[in-house]
Amino acid sequence: SGNSFEIIIIDDGSPDGTQEIAEQLEKIYGSDKILLRPRARKLGLGTAYIHGMKHATGNFIVIMDADLSHHPKFIPEFIRKQKEGNFDIVSGTRYKGNGGVYGWDLKRKLISRGANFITQVLLRPGASDLTGSFRLYRKEVLQKLMEKCVSKGYVFQMEMIVRARQLGYTIGEVPISFVDRVYGESKLGGNEIVSFLKGLLTLFATT
Description:
CATH superfamily of the largest domain: Spore Coat Polysaccharide Biosynthesis Protein SpsA, Chain A
CATH class of the largest domain: Alpha Beta
Order of helices and strands: EHEHEHEEHEHHEEH
Distance between the termini: 39 Å
């Protein structure tokens, strides 16, 4: 690609064997390209970002799931989009253009669509996909947003975009295909849904 890069893998005791695979990749590609930074237990998405950011040396940070639900083929499109508009954030969207979701059952699709719709109505964020996590950030912008965001878990993604709009950062979007994981299992459950609704109401009340 012509871009220098490093891959930082944060694993919070995931049930899908991420850490074992990452260790193999580290041996193949070297610890200068693959940086494995595991944590003993699930501590939330926001703290994982902070943990990973401490080790990032580049000017831009791409954040994505490591189970190929987010395909690396979209990364060059994120980079092109960022250069095209000099955006502070480029967010992958499943709900615009030729973006989409594959492999989810009806219940999961309804939860995702419903969460996104409610968020759009209440917060008017100006971005089409608030709950996705495949994004490119300018490093200093990500650091500033991390200082402002207070949410944990799945609400965190939504708050990042809302706070970015508040602070006047520019956001571009790239349509992506999200493919549900083949191995392992999702950590989305009833507790996460309740937390999401609580976080959404908190954001509505404070933004």
